[in-house]
Amino acid sequence: MLTANATPPHSMSTASPNATAVPSTSIQSSYPLPPSQYYSNYTDENVLRNRVLEPPRPLSEVNYSMFGVTMTNDDTIIRPLETQGIKRLYPRDYDHKRELKKMNISILVNFLDLIDVLVKCPDTMKREEKCADIAMLFVQMHHLINELRPHQARETIRVTLQYQKKFRGDIIMRLNKQIDRVNEIIATCMNNIPEMNEVRNGFEELKHILVNGDASDGNLVNGDISESDFEMNELDSIMCSIVDDI
């Protein structure tokens, strides 16, 4: 319940003695509060301190009222017309599509008859009879359509699952393409890495040139560099060769 005061509490002290007090008005909403007013209370702290509302209890009574209509717990989802006090206009064994087409034609014919009655004799009881016949046909058609609701629900679930399957299949296909591309890149990099023997031979040749002073550019001086100065880790030599190739 929402309560609105026309005058704030602190304004009573400043009001003149001759002024009449405005009565407070109470506003009551005809509809329940929005969902945010409920789920926002279910915080971790409120749940630990048991400050949240308890879930609604199951109905203990057999009958209950919903929107002014008395409902029963053990009722079927789609109640037969006979249980509602309505006469059935189609046989027990029937085809929904065929009966719906017949009722659609009957409604059109009765509507044309109603127009003819309204033109020729609108004040007769025949007009009421035609309106009642059209209303009965609409009730029968509405009941037949409701009987197809379970089938519609199953088809909706089937279509939704097919969409999810296709969506996930597309994701898997794109992921496999990316995996294949990464594998190709890794295979290409592995093929470009020189063999261990080639790296070792190249390192031995480089060490021989540097130690003996056989460099072609003449910048190295023989005897100034010892063999221990050029001892390198085998993995370091491999990395150097990879960097040179890049």
Describe this structure in words.
It is found in: Nucleus. Keywords: Activator, Nucleus, Transcription, Transcription regulation. The relative contact order is 0.04. The chain has 246 residues and is mainly alpha-helical. Helices cover 52% and strands 6% of the residues. The chain has helices spanning 36-39, 44-48, 96-120, 126-147, 149-192, 196-212, 234-245; strands spanning 2-4, 25-27, 63-66, 69-72. It contains seven helices and four strands. Helix 3 packs antiparallel against helix 4 (126-147). It is elongated. Strands 1-2 form a two-stranded antiparallel ribbon. A two-stranded antiparallel sheet has the order 3-4. Strand 3 (63-66) and strand 4 (69-72) form a beta hairpin. The two termini are 76 Å apart.
Topology:
Elements: E1 2-4, E2 25-27, H1 36-39, H2 44-48, E3 63-66, E4 69-72, H3 96-120, H4 126-147, H5 149-192, H6 196-212, H7 234-245
Antiparallel strand pairs: 1-2, 3-4
Q: Strand count, sense and closure of the main sheet? A: 2 strands, antiparallel
Number of strands: 4
List low-pLDDT spans.
1-22, 215-230
With helices defined by DSSP (H or I, 4 residues minimum), what is the helix count?
7
Q: What would the keywords be for this entry?
A:
single chain; 246 residues; mainly alpha; two-stranded antiparallel sheet; 7 helices; 6% strand; elongated; disordered N terminus
